[in-house]
Amino acid sequence: MSAISVRDVWVEFGDQIVIENLNLDIASGSFVSVVGPSGCGKSTFLRLVLGQDRPTRGSLTLDGQPLRDEPDADRGVVFQRYSVFPHLTVLGNVLAAYELGESRFAARLFGAKRRAAIEKADDLITAVGLAPHRTKYPSALSGGMQQRLAIAQALAKDPKVLLLDEPFGALDPGTRAQMHALLKPLWARLGMTVIMVTHDLKEAFGLGTRVIAFDKTRHDPQAPGRFGAKITYDLDLTRDSPVPVLGFLKPPAETMAAQ
Amino acid sequence: MRRAMNIRPGGGARVLLALMPFLLLALVYVFGSAERRAANPNDKLLPPISEMADTTARMATEPDRRSGEIVLVSDTVASLQRLALGLGLATLIGLTLGVALGVLPAANAMGGPLVAVISMIPPMAILPILFIVFGLGEMSKVVLIVIGVAPPIVRDIAMTVQAIPVEQLVKAQTLGASTWTTVLRVALPQALPRLIETVRLQIGPAFLFLIAAEAIAADSGLGYRIFLVRRYLAMDVILPYVAWITLLAFLMDFALAKLARGAFPWAYVGERR
Question: Residue A21 — φ and ψ, nearest 5°?
Fold first, then answer.
């Protein structure tokens, strides 16, 4: 189980309000696409869930437990860039996922543990189609292959939540389609909750079971930082839900909780 | 005609171009030396190469009459020992402090300004203090090198570590890493190639501090010898010693460059030749 609940969250940087009064419930196992214009707080929201940023007010919980306010192994992440370690090979990158957490002092595994970890890492590398490249350094991989490696690395820890920050934004359309074909069955098989920030609406609707749009609803030209972003659209794309129509808004979280 | 910045010399031309300035300098010296000798057979300023070769051979093979040691060898061993100790300690300090300052915001808040101030102290200005505190022996010379060379290494490594994208540090944490394992597997390995490059750049200053310290108070060493024979205007000793020091420094630099490229191939992928 990995349900995320966001309650009355405000994010302010100085006197600039980025996110105002966010309430959101994300069901376990759903694939949530977050869309919206640049600078509307999508990535800030992702960093909140990741624990990289902290809310100014409000709380976030994962399965009822408050989210730790620093990144941990519960939440895997794939960034648009710099997601993989440039000094490790493909195998080394995935292997590091096991070594970093399981070996507290040497940060390396030896003997049988290492062989077991290599076996698991190789399975993941094969699953994302990088088996022929396992001894290469990331600099020798294309952008798409680097992102596949980042996904394999994030999946190694079997996180409850997988966070994707414009993971395919820098890829060409063909590679992007390949990545979609890779990601969707992986998600279906592993059943983790996925939150993906994207600029690509087709991608958001194609992959997600739910699409959330962030935007600023109020704007003060004299004080651009006065109002933050809110959820403007919340579309349920699952099979048994009402047909999504633009403008269809889910009831706010409070009333849902009361039901 | 192509632009000058687009003309790339090939293999043979590259070697020729590299050798040309050296040959030119050698030629200038030989002619100058011959010219002065012709005017004054006792000239000491530009001894001919044959004379320097004789002196060098004598210093490198015959034991000194007073100490019974082969001078060039004992000088080289004494100097290299000081240099290795000084550079080695500075590297160790530089790496440890640099990574700490780069990874830990609290350490940076505390140590950053201090290192910035200390690195502005001219090391030569506190040499007398070092002589008073550590005596005239080996210690003061090694400490001078460390004080002169460690601060730039600390700052450079700290900046290198801070330049690691925050995404990588976050990623490591999402893989279950602690501060220590992040340092060990993410920060340190990415700082190492830069460390070697920084140490390469610090070989020059390290020799500067070594020779300065030896010139003032020592009883052996390359710098000591140069400043000793200066009294007799013995250019036939000084010039070969300078060439020898240059060669040693060049070999160290070359070895470190090879080591870095061999050990960290990933760090040199984008290198332009």
Answer: 45, 60
